[in-house]
């Protein structure tokens, strides 16, 4: 056996064994016998074609780097190839996912534009809120009363419609008391006007009626699902201010000072908000149809009524008026030129006393878009 190499165990047709010759081209490990005539040229071409076919098939199966030895049929066990051993690696080809469609340029542009608009809107909103907050903080929670001509002067360089309406308003009203425009202006104006009306009435019956209405709100809150732990302390603050009037410990200047004090003033505002929410919840079937976007009443109250700095809506006025049995008239002064007169809306409780019973005169508020102040009628 030449070169000490182990002969191939493949037998040729005449029973003799052949030496395996090493080929340097793509036909490595092709066996031949020295006793047989040399293969014709066309046989070599056929073998080359067959080898190329096998290589192409292997290439199509994503197997790269294979040589001719790997293309040959598998030999019997214990056979050793003459050429250098080749290590085959088997790779698992995961099925490729479907093609991912790239976003269209117009879609990307629209998203970018929408995001930019949202950022600008948020920035403008925050700036507007900061400006309003700065302006509001320069205004007391409740101001001293002033002549209604001060209101007229605000519009001297502005709308003729407003000036004409203020002149009409001045025919029956002579003073205005401003409240800070912080989103709590309705409740603060209502609260101050209510306490002031009780104080200036010098009437014990009016005072006791107001106290009874205030005490009854605790039952209203409890029946609407509020826990006493939530409102008891705040209620005590409000009740104490009412009882201080009864004891003669308050005058108009002291009352103003109390409503200009953040803690006490905001406690009163918050309690009025909770009374309003409790009434709306108790009579939800009556008021839920007026809510927008089919909002549930509990959700509406927690978002728009109980929270400080949220502006009051029409149903808030109705609910608070009925919960405390306090009549209110609101002058709605808009910039519309369709009406020369100021339109008054009256909100009276259902159980308004009649006949000879003494009743509280209506509180009078002035509403301009987004804001409430207190009006005083001529005596």
UniProtKB/TrEMBL annotation:
Gene3D superfamilies: Peptidase C65 Otubain, subdomain 1, Peptidase C65 Otubain, subdomain 2. Its EC number is 3.4.19.12. It is an enzyme of class 3 (hydrolase). Residues 1-113 are annotated as: Disordered. GO terms for molecular function: cysteine-type deubiquitinase activity; ubiquitin binding. Keywords: Hydrolase, Protease, Thiol protease, Ubl conjugation pathway. It comes from Funneliformis caledonium. Residues 1-14, 46-61, 103-113 have a biased composition (Basic and acidic residues). The keyword Nucleotide-binding does not apply. This is ubiquitinyl hydrolase 1. One of its GO terms (biological process) is protein K48-linked deubiquitination.
């Amino acid at each position: 056996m030449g070169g000490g190499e182990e002969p191939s165990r493949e037998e040729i047709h005449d029973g003799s064994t052949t030496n395996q010759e090493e080929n340097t081209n793509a036909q490595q490990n092709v066996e031949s016998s020295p006793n047989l005539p040399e293969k014709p040229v066309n046989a070599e071409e056929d073998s080359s074609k067959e080898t190329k076919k096998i290589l192409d098939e292997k290439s199509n199966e994503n197997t790269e780097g294979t040589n001719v030895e790997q293309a040959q049929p598998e030999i019997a066990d214990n056979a050793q190839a003459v050429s250098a051993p080749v290590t085959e690696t088997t790779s698992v080809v995961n099925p490729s996912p479907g093609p991912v469609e790239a976003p269209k340029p117009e879609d990307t542009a629209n998203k970018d534009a929408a995001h930019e608009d949202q950022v600008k809107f948020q920035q403008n909103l925050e700036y507007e809120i900061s400006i309003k907050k700065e302006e509001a903080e320069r205004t007391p929670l409740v101001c001293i009363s002033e002549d209604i001509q001060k209101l007229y002067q605000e519009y001297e360089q502005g709308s003729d419609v407003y000036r004409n309406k203020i002149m009409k308003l001045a025919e029956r009203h002579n003073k205005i008391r401003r409240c800070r425009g912080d989103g709590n202006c309705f409740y603060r104006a209502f609260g101050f006007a209510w306490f002031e009306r009780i104080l200036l009435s010098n009437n014990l019956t009016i005072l006791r009626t107001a106290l009874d209405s205030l005490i009854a709100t605790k039952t209203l809150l409890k029946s609407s699902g509020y826990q006493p732990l939530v409102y008891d302390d705040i209620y005590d603050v409000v009740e104490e201010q009412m009882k201080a009037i009864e004891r003669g410990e308050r005058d108009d200047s002291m009352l103003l000072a109390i409503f200009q004090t953040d803690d006490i003033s905001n406690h009163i505002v918050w309690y009025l908000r909770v009374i309003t929410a409790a009434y709306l919840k108790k009579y939800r079937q009556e008021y839920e149809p007026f809510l927008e976007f089919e909002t549930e009443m509990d959700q509406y109250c927690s978002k728009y009524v109980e929270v400080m700095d949220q502006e009051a809506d029409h149903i808030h006025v109705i609910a608070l008026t009925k919960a405390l049995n306090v009549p209110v008239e609101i002058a709605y002064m808009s910039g519309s030129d369709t009406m020369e007169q100021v339109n008054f809306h009256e909100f009276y409780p259902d159980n308004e006393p009649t006949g000879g019973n003494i009743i509280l005169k209506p509180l009078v508020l002035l509403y301009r878009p987004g804001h409430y102040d207190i009006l005083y009628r001529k005596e």
